[in-house]
Amino acid sequence: MKPILKSAKLANVCYDIRGPVMQRARQLEEEGHRILKLNIGNLAPFGFEAPDEVRQDVILNLGAASGYSDSKGLFAARKAIMHYCQQKNIKGVTLDDIIVGNGVSELIVMSMQGLLNNGDEVLLPAPDYPLWTAAVSLAGGTPRHYLCDEQSDWYPDLNHLRAQITEKTKALVIINPNNPTGALYPESLLKEMIEIARQHQLIVFADEIYDKMLYDGAEHTSIASLADDVLFITMNGLSKNYRACGYRAGWMVISGDKRHATDYIDGLNIMASMRLCANVPGQYAIQTSLGGYQSVNDLVGPGGRLARQRDLAYDLITSIPGVSCVKPKAALYLFPRLDPKVYPIQNDQRFVLELLEAEKVLVVQGTGFNWPTPDHFRVVFLPNTDDLTDAMGRIARFLDSYRKKHAG
How crowded is the C-beta side of 105, counted as CA atoms within 13 Å? Predict the structure, then answer.
């Protein structure tokens, strides 16, 4: 029989966060090994539960959640998102400018499918959240990565960004707060990025899913609040701020200059209608989440669990010889650098696989986030302090043997 092949559209699609190393981790678990998982920002397995009030509202509304909703989402959910936009100073957003999705992931794919023709180019950060790059490739587009500068708190290198722009460039993706680096961009930088978009008539896609996971009193500025003469598509949802990854409740907000984008917006509406609607039970969590007590502030504030675990993970990882890291201002991740003189890594996927085999710790290699060189990896600091200390100790032990093996 002829082999059944996957679509050629998937040739350049990669999502290593759930790739072959994770498959090996699953095999090891089936063999009875306990794996310390520092690979995915999935909060519930680490004891971070959705707020009780949110869960209760979903349960109470299950009776009304059996049918389809409007293809853009429930009225009450979109109204709450509209009010949230007003809090974030994003002007001119109406109910019709909001589309609720099955998590931001679905909306990223929809937004690229609705925009790109074969060969169209999209500017993406390096490192990035790899679903963005995958979605561009799947839609027939060409990802063009602009470097973020580790020496400057992982801020985008604007000169390198400008150098990636061609006549085929359609959009600029900004992930702020950033996954995987934990960077948080200041208003002055965001304004410069808007000016680049303005000059080249680019759509700005803003991924702001971590906008409440901020440390040391930091504040987040929604880029769409800074201009009204550029088209912005802002993505957000409940997965991280409200510890509700499994609810799959995300949204996109269209704002700014919509006058020349009516055809694209029509395309987004078609895409929303084609999948009928986002899951309705999850939508019933949105109004309560956005309007209720913001318990995430307790987790990220002084003495909060996430703040303490960030500090512990940072201190432990940077105490290892040859390892440096920019301390994250936001999100759930560290993106440490391994000095190539000390750790001459040729293939970072093989490196993290060796770490998994030797120490039963699962991390994600830096190239999985479209970072160009094999000298970084991403660590999730969600485990409790005991497990985090154990995991970092194992990483330190592995790196110690790696250094000795490659010394000389």
Answer: 13
- Indicate the burial class of 388 (C-beta count within 10 angstroms; 0-12, 13-18, 19 or more): buried
Query: Do β-strands 337-338 and 333-334 pair in parallel, antiparallel, or remain unpaired?
Result: unpaired
Confidence of residue 20 (pLDDT cuts 50, 70, 90): confident
> Would you say 381 and 332 are in contact if contact means Cβ atoms under 8 Å apart?
yes
Q: Residue 5, Cα to own-chain centre: how many angstroms?
A: 30
User: Average pLDDT, whole number, for the chain?
Assistant: 94
Of 322, 339, 407, 342, nearest to 373 by C-alpha is: 339
Per-position b or e across 44-73, b if 16+ CB within 10 A of its CB: eebebebbeebeebbeebeeeeeeebbbbb
Q: How does DSSP assign 98-136, residue by residue? A: EEEEEHHHHHHHHHHHTTPPTT-EEEEEES--HHHHHHH
**Distance, CA of 408 to CA of 403 (rounded, Å):** 9
Give the C-alpha separation, 285 to 9, whole Å: 35
Contact 332, 41 (CB under 8 A): yes
Cα 40 off chain centre by: 10
207: β partners: 175, 235
348 phi, psi to nearest 5 deg = -75, -20
> Is-contact 177 214, C-beta < 8 A?
yes
> Directed axis angle between helix 305-318 and helix 385-406, to 10°?
20
The structure's pTM equals 0.95
